[in-house]
Q: What sequence folds into this?
């Protein structure tokens, strides 16, 4: 019985959401990284963060309209999506 309960608990357990740290980079001089409402370049912009800014990441996906990789990020007052290519591990 105990083994069956442990097995059931393992099947229903969900992993904790890992938070990643990123630093914004790889943009042309004077440009900022746009944070968007959805993982799509056509989605409304929530705002921009400057090059060098630190962001917290909550997972990435390439299951997007463009097929490009976007990450769910939080930086300052913005919580939205940013292109992965401009995020370096921090």
A:
């Amino acid at each position: 019985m105990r083994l069956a309960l442990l097995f059931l608990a393992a099947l229903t357990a969900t992993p904790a959401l890992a938070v990643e740290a990123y630093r914004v980079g790889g943009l042309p001089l004077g440009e900022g990284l746009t944070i968007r409402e959805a993982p799509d370049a056509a989605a409304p912009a929530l705002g921009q963060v400057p090059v060098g800014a630190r962001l917290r990441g909550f997972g990435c996906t390439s299951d997007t309209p463009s097929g490009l990789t976007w990450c769910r990020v939080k930086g300052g007052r913005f919580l939205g999506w940013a292109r992965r290519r401009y995020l370096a591990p921090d």
Observations:
- The domain at 17-89 is CATH 2.30.30.40 (SH3 type barrels.).
- The two ends are 46 Å apart (CA to CA).
- The first strand starts at residue 20 and ends at 24.
